[in-house]
Amino acid sequence: MIGVGAQDDFEFALEFIDSTGVETPAMLWDPSFATWSAFGVRINSQMLLMSPDLTRGTDLFCGFGEADQARVLSALPTLS
C-alpha cells in the first residue's frame, strides 16, 4: 500500500506523520500531481486497487473514511 502526498507542502506531510504516528501506508511525495494524473485520481482521499503491474485497477473509494472490505475483496480476482 502506498499513500501519495501532493497537497500542502512536504514539511506539512512530515508534521502529519510525526503527529499521528502513521507508519503505513508508505508515503510517496509528489507535489507535481503527475502521479494523480497518471492514475486518474480526482480527489483527496481516493483509494485505488491496482494490479501488480500497476495498470489502472478498480476505483474503490472517494472521500474520507474506510473502503468497504467486501468491495475490496470482490475486486481482487479482477486484478490477477
Keywords:
two-stranded parallel sheet, 80 residues, 21% strand, alpha+beta, 2 domains, 3 helices, 30% helix
Give a structural overview.
The chain has 80 residues and is an alpha+beta fold. The protein has 2 domains: 1-41, no CATH class; 45-80, no CATH class. It is built from 3 helices and 4 strands; from the N terminus they run βαβαββα. The strands form 2 sheets. The protein has a two-stranded parallel ribbon. A two-stranded antiparallel sheet has the order 3-4. A hairpin with an 8-residue loop joins strand 3 (46-49) and strand 4 (58-62). The relative contact order is 0.15.
Terminal Cα span? 17 Å
Class per helix and strand makeup: alpha+beta
Shape: globular
Tell me the total number of β-strands. 4
Number of helices: 3
Order of strands, widest sheet: 1-2
Mean pLDDT: 76
Order of helices and strands: EHEHEEH
Helix content: 25-40%
The low-confidence runs, each spanning 5 or more residues with pLDDT under 50, are none
| Computed Rg | 13 Å
Strand content: 15-25%
Oligomer: single chain
Counting structural domains, the number is 2
The profile of the biggest β sheet is:
2 strands, parallel
